[in-house]
Amino acid sequence: MLNFILLNGFVLLMGYLIGSVSFARIITKIVSPDTNLERTDAPLEGTDEKLEMNGISATSVRLKLGPKYGILVSLLDMLKMVVPVAALHYFFPDSPAYYFAAAGGVVGHNWPIYYKFQGGYGHSPIYGALFVIEWTAIPISFVGTAVFYFIFRQVQIASFLGVLLILPWFLFRGLGRFAVLYAVVFSLSYLIRILPDFRATRQIEKRKTNTQASTTNAE
């Protein structure tokens, strides 16, 4: 039991420290040192307003520097989880250590110790770890996100439900309690990070609705 706690506690910490590396900041610093990622405004579909993003992520880089660098950051954020998770899975196949490393990586990405705990949303490291843990969950999540967006027409809701869909998929695949625990951790981490964006979007939509109603009444 002591060895189990020490090993998994260690890989959890290492996963967190690796996940805390912000490739969004690193790539931006290299490509465009004067670009500030602390505030990124994203166009909000269906309105003339913009949403101030809560996270610093590949999306921030895409909006500031273009899709080429956004994709690069996303790939690097996935890779920072693929490597340690794959290594642990290879060397300790009968241990849940790789799940702890993956969970620590998502938490580190979202709340990085190197950057005053201001990170991204966790999409890329979640999918990076899934390439090793259960790659079939990736298309399930992607398709689910698209379907939920078609239903709700809300990016934050669709994204979260697409991520949440991985949990029942893990259960269906019978991956065990540590996989389920990992899914719970990254789902909650994603929800906490995206919730401020969702609330801000709702406020913008309410203002739009009130404005349209006032214009209609005035006519």
Please sum up the structure shown.
With 219 residues, the chain is an all-alpha fold. The protein is built from ten helices and two strands, in the order ααββαααααααα. Strands 1-2 form a two-stranded antiparallel sheet.
Describe this protein's structure.
The protein is mainly α. It has one domain. It contains ten helices and two strands. Strands 1-2 form a two-stranded antiparallel sheet. Strand 1 and strand 2 form a beta hairpin. Helix 4 runs parallel beside helix 6. The longest helix has 42 residues.
Provide the fold topology.
Blueprint: H1 2-19, H2 23-31, E1 41-43, E2 50-52, H3 58-65, H4 67-91, H5 97-110, H6 123-133, H7 137-152, H8 155-164, H9 166-173, H10 177-218
Antiparallel strand pairs: 1-2
Helix pairs in contact: 1-5, 2-3, 2-4, 3-4, 4-5, 4-6, 5-6, 5-10, 7-8, 8-10, 9-10
Descriptors for this entry?
globular, 2 strands, mainly alpha, 219 residues, 10 helices
